[in-house]
Amino acid sequence: MHIHKYEKIWLTFGIGSLVVFLGITGVMAFHQGTHPNNSMITVNYEEVDTIAPFNNPGVHKVDGKDWDYEVVVTSSAFFYNPMELVVPVGAKVKFITTSKDVVHGFQITGTNINMMAEPGYVSEYVTTVDQVGEYLIVCNEYCGTGHTQMFSMLKVVEPDEL
Ligand code: CUA
Question: How far is the CA of 52 from the centre of ligand 1 (A)?
């Protein structure tokens, strides 16, 4: 079978693109941990405030776990509770959030932390905060008229500044 020269070039380009895109997806999924919420942990979204750990939002030091701190945040229209989070640099932190009403986002700008906060489901992400700074937490899922006002702040500080 004869394949025209340009046809071969386009076939090579097409297959090459596919390999590159699959490669990028693979690196993101397996190396950077980008994946959909596994929806394994559920919660009654109408009673979030009474259910642990969401009955005590904030930054908590924990012992005997694979991480040093748990950051518990509730998301609701149109704010996060708490408004500000402070963690020491170098700590391994588990971020935990859920929504009390509609779907919200939980993106910490300048980091690879980007979760959805869905009513009925608990979203978690474990990472090490390795750079001092102030990071804006924004809602990146359109959730209503106050969407653009929905933000919080993560402060990563030297341990002696805690
Ligand atoms: Cu919450 Cu947009």
Answer: 23
